[in-house]
């Protein structure tokens, strides 16, 4: 893909790359993200890409509609404070929280979201999955003609918040989660399309393999990383 010059830092300062090897409770993750963003705003921390998994739960973005929470008792529900609507997180889903200084990356939120989508698309391509962007539908989609005409499934959701030009929240990619857990919500407010995963598409990939591909593609789009 061609690099978008508004996404790379001119100084090529490395982003810290952190992988949590245990499930992180959502309130804990949200508090840690907010604290890191405050430090980044003050110039007291480095940019961070944080890879983790959550226990099964739903999060509500700032555009979430009450009717899209179809089973409020199915899983815990948390207000996320990010853009977007309802989404699911759980084991087997790789969450990538990106705390980046967009002042150093062009001050273009639309370009940033597109770059996150491209990160997912390039990573999927490494495993022979064709992911696509859709105007008006943030996230990454896979065509499912076997399900009917114009049918598509979402394999990755994107929700972001920007505070004083520092981003947080980010990407969730379905590796092998329990897709039945999506039954309690209308994912991202879209009722006429479905959700899928690597496993659902017949691709048996380990989480470390996915992480390795994500890091390689992140470095091409966003710049160098250093493991912490």
Task: Give structural notes.
The strands form 2 sheets. Strands 1, 2, 6, 7, 8, 9, 10, 11 and 12 form a 9-stranded mixed sheet that branches. A 3-stranded mixed sheet has the order 4-3-5, with no helix packed on it. The mean pLDDT is 93. It has 228 residues and is of the alpha/beta class. 21% of the residues lie in helices and 30% in strands. The chain has helices at 26-41, 109-125, 207-222; strands at 15-23, 48-53, 57-60, 77-79, 86-89, 93-99, 132-134, 137-143, 152-163, 166-174, 194-195, 225-227. Helix 2 packs across helix 3 (207-222). The protein has one domain (15-227): BirA Bifunctional Protein, domain 2 (2-Layer Sandwich), CATH 3.30.930.
CATH topology: BirA Bifunctional Protein, domain 2
User: What is the share of helical residues?
Assistant: 10-25%
Radius of gyration: 17 Å
Q: Which residues form runs of ≥5 with pLDDT under 50?
A: none
Give the tally of β-strands.
12
Query: What's the pLDDT, averaged over the residues?
Result: 93
SSE series: EHEEEEEHEEEEEHE
Number of domains: 1
In CATH, the homologous superfamily goes by the name: Bira Bifunctional Protein, Domain 2
The chain-level structural class is alpha/beta
Task: Report the span from N to C terminus.
Answer: 28 Å
- The CATH architecture designation is 2-Layer Sandwich
Q: What is the CATH C level class, in words?
A: Alpha Beta
GO molecular function: lipoyl(octanoyl) transferase activity
Enzyme class: transferase
Pathway: Protein modification; protein lipoylation via endogenous pathway; protein N(6)-(lipoyl)lysine from octanoyl-[acyl-carrier-protein]: step 1/2
EC number: 2.3.1.181
